[in-house]
Amino acid sequence: MEIDAVEPAVRAAFEASVEEDPDRFHEAIEDILDRGDDFTIEAFQLAINVTAIVLQDMHDGEVPGAQEISDLAEDFAETQEDWSEVSADLARTYMASAMGEEAVLDVMSPGDVAVTGFALGGWLVSAFLPEDKDWSTYLDEVLKALEAALAEE
Question: Which member of 6, 52, 66, 149 lies 3.0 to 4.6 Å from 43 by CB, making a disulfide possible if both were Cys?
Answer without folding.
Answer: 6
